[in-house]
């Protein structure tokens, strides 16, 4: 069977429960965020945007240990290795405050890395186009 079309699959892989922008918006509105979105400077769960933004941080995809958050930690580490270490950018707490500079006082430039990976699956998986067609068809068929 010959495939006349090319299927591209692109994935944007954030490694946190929510985007930082959701915390920024709550901060501007003076509203708390839902449980599980972030932690304070001591690593304790917090619903206060200012404590999350200034000294705290976002929680990993997967949340706490009870909901298998350690799996999210592993994925976050992989993303950090690819986007920070391999890109020559800062990592972890050394990236800097990624807040919009017009939203809240940012004092230093952000050193945020990126990683883009392109593969030619035909070199490692014979029959890839048909297999991908089947997978995408299955996904489109889901309720």
Can you give me a brief rundown of this structure?
By secondary structure, the protein is mostly helical.
Mind explaining what this structure looks like?
- This protein has 143 residues and is mainly alpha-helical.
- It is built from 4 helices and 3 strands; from the N terminus they run αββαβαα.
- It has helices at 20-29, 49-53, 69-85, 128-140; strands at 38-39, 45-46, 57-58.
- It has a 3-stranded antiparallel β-sheet with strand order 2-1-3.
Helix % is 25-40%
Q: Got a strand count?
A: 3
Distance between the termini: 28 Å
Mean pLDDT: 81
**Gyration radius, in Å:** 19 Å
Order of helices and strands: HEEHEHH
Number of helices: 4
Coarse morphology: globular
Strand numbers in spatial order across the main sheet: 2-1-3
Structural class: mainly alpha
Largest sheet: 3 strands, antiparallel
Give the key terms.
143 residues, mainly alpha, 3-stranded antiparallel sheet, 4 helices, 3 strands, 31% helix
List the helices and strands and how they pair.
Layout: H1 20-29, E1 38-39, E2 45-46, H2 49-53, E3 57-58, H3 69-85, H4 128-140
Antiparallel strand pairs: 1-2, 1-3
């Amino acid at each position: 069977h010959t495939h006349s079309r090319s299927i591209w699959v692109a994935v944007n892989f954030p490694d946190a429960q929510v985007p930082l922008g959701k915390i920024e918006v709550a901060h501007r509105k003076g509203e708390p965020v839902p449980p599980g979105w972030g932690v304070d400077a001591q690593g304790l769960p917090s619903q206060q945007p200012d404590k999350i933004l200034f000294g705290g941080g976002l929680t990993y995809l997967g949340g706490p240990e009870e909901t298998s958050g350690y799996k999210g930690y592993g994925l976050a580490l992989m993303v950090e290795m690819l986007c920070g270490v391999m890109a020559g950018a800062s990592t972890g707490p050394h990236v800097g405050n990624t807040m919009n500079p017009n939203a809240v006082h940012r004092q230093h430039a952000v050193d945020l890395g990126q990683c883009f990976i392109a593969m030619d699956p035909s070199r490692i998986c014979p029959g890839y186009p048909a297999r991908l067609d089947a997978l995408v068809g299955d996904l489109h068929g889901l309720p």
